From TrEMBL:
Belongs to the DapB family. Pathway: Amino-acid biosynthesis; L-lysine biosynthesis via DAP pathway; (S)-tetrahydrodipicolinate from L-aspartate: step 4/4. Catalyzes the conversion of 4-hydroxy-tetrahydrodipicolinate (HTPA) to tetrahydrodipicolinate. It comes from Brachybacterium huguangmaarense. It catalyses: (S)-2,3,4,5-tetrahydrodipicolinate + NADP(+) + H2O = (2S,4S)-4-hydroxy-2,3,4,5-tetrahydrodipicolinate + NADPH + H(+); (S)-2,3,4,5-tetrahydrodipicolinate + NAD(+) + H2O = (2S,4S)-4-hydroxy-2,3,4,5-tetrahydrodipicolinate + NADH + H(+). Residues 5-109 form the Dihydrodipicolinate reductase N-terminal domain. InterPro entries: DapB_C, DapB_N, DapB_N_CS, DHDPR_bac, NAD(P)-bd_dom_sf. This is 4-hydroxy-tetrahydrodipicolinate reductase. Residues 112-241 form the Dihydrodipicolinate reductase C-terminal domain. PROSITE patterns: DAPB. GO terms for molecular function: 4-hydroxy-tetrahydrodipicolinate reductase. The active site is at H136, K140.
Length: 251
């Protein structure tokens, strides 16, 4: 007889958090033991016997939440963007003191978005040009999105493995920043529109052709299979994993 995984959700009052609470409650192999919103005592997760904490809060809170989870001996599944290399290094250092713990920080939990990032890494080897357009709702706090940054890194890795140099761009004047941000050598354009949820277009250009990879999340329920995968797998992957693809055996 299998034992269910005890789960606590931080940020349970938000739209992603509420969707995660519902998904965990509906999963037969998981048990929701704490739904913690802003202002609630997160220690109730410890008192309730949580094994995995899902952090779906905000960038200003997530670093402290992960440190707290590690200190309490809890695995963590994190869906908050805004993590830089210094912050990730802090997590690795903290986990070095807790070798059995796993932390997953995922820029995107949608399975299709993860696949699009991996496909982009493959395609990047064969195209001279590449750019990213990421589109989200106007309440999103960061830009470019974590997904776009992760995608740019994947494209840069694919280009480097193929020995490709910088993408061609002879722009000399762009006082208003129309060419967008440059992440790992790839131009990234962020759109914020009411009515959108999370969308990404990855554009590749070669002589006489264009390849477009596009992923659309129309509802936050699209992220829940990835959240549940993270909860189920995090204990089996000690240390820090960045990106849900680390749990998906895509190699």
């Amino acid at each position: 007889m299998s034992t269910s995984i005890a789960v606590a959700v931080l940020g349970a009052a938000g739209r992603m958090g509420a969707a995660a609470v519902h998904a965990v409650e509906q999963a037969p192999d998981l048990e929701l033991v704490a739904a913690i919103g802003r202002g609630d005592d997160r220690e109730q997760a410890v008192r309730a016997g949580a094994q995995v904490v899902v952090d779906l809060t905000v960038p200003d809170a997530t670093r402290d939440n992960v440190r707290w989870a590690i200190e309490r001996g809890l695995h963590a599944v994190v869906g908050v963007t805004g993590w830089d290399e210094d912050a990730l290094a802090e997590v690795r250092d903290a986990l070095a003191e807790r070798p059995g713990l796993g932390v997953l920080i995922a820029p995107n939990f949608a399975i299709g978005a993860v696949l699009a990032m991996r496909f982009a890494q493959v395609a990047a080897r064969y195209y001279e040009s590449a750019e990213i357009i990421e589109m989200h709702h106007p309440d999103k706090l960061d830009a470019p999105s974590g997904t776009a940054r992760h995608t740019a890194a994947a494209i840069a890795s694919g280009r480097a493995s193929a020995g490709l140099g910088p993408v061609p761009d002879r722009t000399r004047s762009d006082p208003d920043g129309a060419r967008g941000a440059v992440v790992d050598g790839i131009h990234v354009h962020a759109v914020r529109l009411r009515g959108l949820v999370a969308h990404e277009e990855i554009l590749f250009g070669g002589v006489g052709e264009e390849l477009t990879l596009r992923h659309d999340s129309f509802d936050r329920v699209s992220f829940m299979p990835g959240v549940l995968l993270g909860i189920r797998e995090v204990a089996s992957h000690p240390g820090l994993t960045v990106g849900l693809d680390g749990y998906m055996e895509l190699d």
